[in-house]
Amino acid sequence: MRSCIAFALVLVFKIGFAQSPVERYFEKIRNNSAELTAFMAQMPKGGDLHHHYTGSVYAETFLDYVIANDYAVNLQTLEINPEKPTDKEWTTFSALKTSGALARYSQLLLMQWSVKDYEPSSGPSDKHFFDSFDKFKYASAYTVEAGLLELKNRAIRENVSYLETMFLSVPCPQTVTDLLPFNDALHLCQQTHNDSLTNQLLDSLYTALVAHDLRGCALDYNENVIKRLHQGLAIDDSAFTMRYQNFVLRFLDPVPFFKSLILCCESDQNSDLVVGVNVVAPEDGEVSMADYWLHMRMFRYIHSRYPDVKFAMHAGELALGMVQPEELTWHIQEAVYVAGARRIGHGVAVPYEQHSYDLLRHMAREQIPVEINLTSNEFILHVQGDRHPTMLYRSFGVPIVISSDDAGILRTSLTEQYVLLAHRYPDITYAEIRQYVYNSIAFSFLSAADKQRLKADLDARFAAFEAEFGK
Fold it and tell me: b/e for 121-148, b at 16 or more Cβ within 10 A?
């Protein structure tokens, strides 16, 4: 009965009864790309919660850096090297400028460092995307200040008031070679799915790792990276807020993975600017797939040590054909039921999950939102339209937030994600889209006081925006 009433109410909105001026205008223009883009550009968009710092900086920023510092470029592979090799296949950017070839090679680098002018014949789209990070690493490592300011200024222009960006994996030079035998022991537990012994090993490994002064590394990172950059660049202001997620890399062996997870949690627990922990890298990678069971139990264990640390988790960023079909059936539920994820990133494989209806009901009941990334899922997974589970999540009442993922590499924006949402899913009303915007603040990992402040700001922004349509 409830579902019937809900659909009836949606129908009332769709046919025009009791619609506000902004709702009527939205329905009028939702099939016109230019008008819809103008509308969404001006609409307040709250927060972007699934946001990778490095992948969100546009490649032009990295290109400007290597040109200004006259790096060398390999004319065949387009590799970049600050050391300026003297082999004949290498040349400097100043030499390219002198010869008149700078514009050509600049364009080629932008195409390699992002999806600009991507041609499917050049190789798999997912490989092109994930390889981009390593190709611009020499530039991205030295442009953090410029990158953060770029993201802040772009967000303000785009009417985005909050970024919760996956920033860095906490560095720590402490060697843990004495603990490497734990790798084999943990892998053996994984082979037999021995939960009890896994917990015992993690307990011993945790004690041993903490003795290596990981907390000191985390505190140094908080003070000399996060706080220095955030305060030094005046990232926060009256129009904008930024907070940071630390992340662990999926392709690490068990001991360095667990070490990194502890570092991330120590950093989070001791900083007001770090608000959560995530796990990144291709989910279909060899280690990612082989160690997924173990990774989820590491997150579960670490939650017992750091109960106040919040986890968002890439899970179900998979599509049929990428992996064996049975591998599509359990990743999201492991992230939710075992690892304790408070938000799920992507979640595209949810239709294939075993007992998917029970999982969706649980996510709705426990208010575990899904972070929808439409451009990313289309380019990397080739999933769009009704193959994408947006409407499945909606039908079960799972909270939805709209995010950009890696807007720099993907050459997109948060505005474009809302445009695609309105175009592709005509049953989604303006009122629902408005709710998704509010969800981006309500389900952020911000403090209660910051959420209240940003919600009040969002109220004022929407009141001003919607008043335009009643004139």
Answer: eeeebbebbbebbebbebbbeebbeebb
**Nearest-CA neighbor of 175 among 207, 211, 199?**
211
> What CA–CA distance (Å, rounded) separates 273 from 243?
5
Give the C-alpha distances (Å, rounded to integers) separating 406 from 48, 243, 264, 373, 461. 11, 17, 21, 9, 26
Q: With both helix axes pointing from N to C terminus, report the angle between 195-210 and 254-269 in degrees, rounded to the nearest 10.
A: 60
Identity of the amino acid at 381 = L
> SS3 helix, strand, coil % of the chain, rounded to 5?
60, 10, 30
Which residues 6+ apart lie within 8 Å of 92 measured at CB? Answer: 70, 71, 72, 73, 84
Of 4, 132, 143, nearest to 62 by C-alpha is: 143
Q: Which two tokens stand for residue 54?
A: 């490095």
Taking only the tens place, the pLDDT of each residue in 230-285 is 999 999 998 899 999 999 999 999 999 999 999 999 999 999 999 999 999 999 99
**Residue 106 carries which side chain, given as an amino acid letter?**
S
Place of tokens 């667990």: 258
The DSSP code for 241 is E
Q: 150-160: per-residue pLDDT in tens?
A: 999 999 999 99
Tokens 């809302």 appear where? 418
Q: Cβ atoms within 10 A of the Cβ of 161, count?
A: 23
User: For residues 329 and 356, is the Cβ–Cβ distance under 8 A?
Assistant: no
- CA neighbor of 136 nearest in space, from 128, 125, 124: 128
- Classified as helix, coil or strand, 277 is strand
The residue type of 387 is R
Write 186-191 long-range contacts (CB < 8 A, 24+): 186/254, 186/294, 187/254, 187/291, 187/294, 189/294, 190/291, 190/293, 190/294
Distance in angstroms (rounded) separating the CA atoms of residues 190 and 341:
20
Q: pLDDT at position 17, please?
A: 60
Residue 158 near residue 41, CB atoms below 8 Å: yes
Residue with tokens 């709710």: 435
Beta-carbon neighbour count of residue 207 at 10 Å?
9
Distance from C-alpha of 221 to C-alpha of 172, rounded to nearest angstrom: 9
